[in-house]
Amino acid sequence: MEGLLREQPDYAEALCILGMSDAALGRKEEALREGRRAVELIPVTKDAVTGAELLRNLAIIYAWTGEKDLAIKQLEELLPLFSPISYGQLRLHPWWDPLRDDPRFEKIVEEAKEPVTLK
Q1: What's 48-79 look like in SS3?
Q2: Which pTM value belongs to this model?
Q3: Residue 78 near residue 52, CB atoms below 8 Å
Q4: What CA–CA distance (Å, rounded) separates 76 from 85?
Q5: How far is 105 from 24, CA to CA, in rounded Å?
Q6: pLDDT in tens, 34-48
């Protein structure tokens, strides 16, 4: 992954995956930098699908690095959008285990049960 990023430093998806890997390995600062940079490269306003996936991955990075407040905030912003976040994923996926003891996360899980309102 790092070799790929040396060749293509603005490859947002690879940068975000590297950020998740660094978060899992306890490299907090690198993980946060990489996840944030990926979101800057492909904002949801530029690409709704990929941008939303990167925002979800950034929320995971925040959760895994102990930045619960930032993870919750990211999920609150992401949930109303067309996104790769679903009730089942929030309820069952181990990505979100670091947030499970937070009542704000449980509120987000409950909100995810509601059908999406199209405007």
Answers
A1: HHHHHHHHHHHHHHHHHCCCHHHHHHHHHHHC
A2: 0.88
A3: yes
A4: 11
A5: 20
A6: 999 999 999 999 998
